[in-house]
Amino acid sequence: MNTDYKKIYENKKKFEHLLSKINKNNDLSENLIIANEALYFAVKQNTGYYVSNKLEKFYCDCAKQIKTDISNIEYEKNSVLHVATLTCNIGGHSRVIERWVELAPEHQKNSVVLLNQTCEIPSKLKENTEKKNGQLYVLDKQADILEKAKQLRELAMHYEYIVLHIHMEDPTAVIAFGTEEFTRPVMFFNHADHLFWIGKSITDKLVDLREVQSITKKYRGIDDVFILPIPQEINNTKNIKTKEEARRYLNLPNAQKIILTTGSEFKFAPFKNKSLLQPLKEIITNIQDSICIAIGPSLKNAQWKQAFDETNGKIKAIGEINYNKEYFDYIKASDLIIDSWPLSGGTVIKDAITCKKPILSLLNPIGQCDYVLKSKCFCNTERELVQKACDILSNIQQNGEDYFLDINKYFQEETDIISWQNKLEKLYNSLPKKHSVKDLSSDKDINIIDDYSLLLNQTYSLPKKEKLKSIKLIKYYLKYYLYKYIIKNHLKRDKYLQIVIEQYLQK
Q1: Separation CA 456–CA 288 (nearest Å)
Q2: Whole-structure pTM value
Q3: CATH architecture assignment, domain 68-233+422-429
Q4: Contact yes or no for 355/331 (Cβ under 8 A)
Q5: How much is the average pLDDT of 390-404?
Q6: 290-295 and 205-208 as β-strands: parallel, antiparallel, unpaired?
Q7: What pLDDT does residue 366 have?
């Protein structure tokens, strides 16, 4: 067996072993630690599973143990509560929430609750929430998860609709809404459709981003989904600069042809001995006076530093750029956008189209948005990517506009603001009047280990930690039992149990 696939089978066994440990005793806090570690592990180390009925059932059982008096709470009509683990100034996840609130009907109240906010809250989110007569709630990130779930349940009962934008490893919402004592319908916006997550049991309507390459149907066995693409941004004042103005502002040469690629550094990690840097180097070689700027990766990364040296600085990684500052200036300054690979970036494609720039996207195991697949901007092979890039850069004015117009046609069909708002209204109308919790006990989990699993395992794997020596690990076991049975200090016991589990996962 291929060693890479062998690792995923090992992950599968570890995950199943952790699941078997849940509910071995009646200690809720101890079971929560084991379940949370299993959840985090399945998100960060691919196991071939993308949902888990046993995890879902455990968290729903936890939900029933939280006592709340919510039966007499009246909800406010035409109100929506968006539930997010956290929001930040980079990445597409937060932009979706901002735009959803911004594009919501004027008569509808849209509020946001942040369950575990650890960074600065985006100013745009604050502004949009205030304009829609909503509130921005921030729960105490230090609070116990059961307490946060209780607060969330009580808060959410005041709203007509609930939308989940939660992180994959965050079980708070499942514990909050895992009981039918909570009655408001719950939508799950599947922004991380390619990863393991929980929430299937509490979801009244799953909202997916794409239909053509549906991961939801194949890997989770969920057929009843509502397709709602990422909406466009309205009144985009960031795009005021012309290409020449943006280049002057960024101190970029006006005569050169500029390729831009952008995405978190992990989206560019080599896969099966291939990386985006290979076709980028070929394009730079074929097109004179061309350079490539990469936002997200930095020159601290060995492969990007090597590319910088080999091309005499023509491929340059500049690290992270604030989305609300110079990010759009770089897009406006460019002649061609090339999507990240092996993981595609949904937000950058939209932003490139908004700025009327041609973009190319290369086939990857995880897939792209429907409108990308329909357009000629989609490339099945590296050879096709290089040829199309050279075609665009050789005649930017004519060919660049041709490629932009082609993808823009499909993009507008899916994400035009008016049509998106109409889809949103249809989504609300499709919801049941009352929330229900699915009994998944008879459902069999789907386990598929393939190239898709291989890429996820490579990209989202747990950070490597220095393994504890056996004698030290034994000491942690002893401390755990000491605080469990003799001293009975729950905080210390939980701390050492978590260390023991983490070490097991690192083996």
Answers
A1: 36
A2: 0.81
A3: 3-Layer(aba) Sandwich (3.40)
A4: yes
A5: 96
A6: unpaired
A7: 83
